[in-house]
Write a structure and sequence with these properties.
Blueprint lengths: L3 H8 L5 E4 L2 E4 L3 H7 L9 E5 L5 H13 L19 H5 L6 E4 L8 H5 L3 E6 L2 H14 L16 H10 L7 H9 L1 H4 L6 E4 H6 L1 H12 L5 H10 L2 H11 L30 H15 L6
Parallel strand pairs: 3-4, 3-5, 5-6
Antiparallel strand pairs: 1-2
Length: 295
Amino acid sequence: MATPAEKAMAAGINFDLVMFEGFVHYAMIVDNLTKLKDFPIRDDDVLLCTYPKSGTHWAWEILNMIVAGKAEYAEHWQNSAWLEYRTQEELEKLASPRILHTHLRPSQLPHALWDKQCKVIYVRRNPKDCVVSSFCQFTQQIWKENCSKKQIYTGSWNDYIDLYLDEYLPSGPYFQHTIEWANISEIHEEFEICRVQYEDMKKDCVQEIRRMADYLGRQLSDRTCQEISEACSFKNLKHANENLKDQTYHFRWQNGSSGYFRKGTTGDWKNWFTVAQSDRFDKIYEKRLKEKFPY
């Protein structure tokens, strides 16, 4: 019988995938994952945790500015601090306090993170917008190292929804990811994380910046919060990432491929989902997470 990783590749994922700890992962990061639980965490590390396409670039840049106390872009792309993709040696070179980020579940993270009571920011987004955004990225991007010159995903939109709901995508299991982060305080008692909603950031970014700053113990003026919000607007952050930042850690795409920044909006899923697809998504969501679909 085919494994979920094999089924995902058969459905159109054009990357080597393997099973690791019961879920589908890119084969190229498994070595890092096996070592990650013993990764040396520093006392002042800040960890940004998101499911893919939940505003990771946006939140990571905001956190860097909050810690710096000013609206200046970090030198590198967020990929320079990506926990599961960078080597331990690369991450050790980062100056403290490090703003690390990950798409992993709590159970996959370094043990020392919980022991040291590090600051953790968890950003959640409407999963229907997440699946649309990841589908667009996967169907448009071609890695420069990909000799086949195929997009990451060449299957259909309907099949992609199936892969997402079945938790066969290499981006990780959405429902398991959400459940673990929802229950983190039961597993690690008295561990306080800062929960942020993508849609709230879109409504009032300044207010969410203040909340994150308060959680990190950083006192920022109203003016600085406003300047950070403006610097991290979709238009300005897209320009900075493509034109101002050092590109060393940027995943390189072949000519004609899209970048990470597509629309940065909410509700675009309505332009993609059929009524039947939306109803099915809601039912599976409600069954797995034991709550009404809230978006």
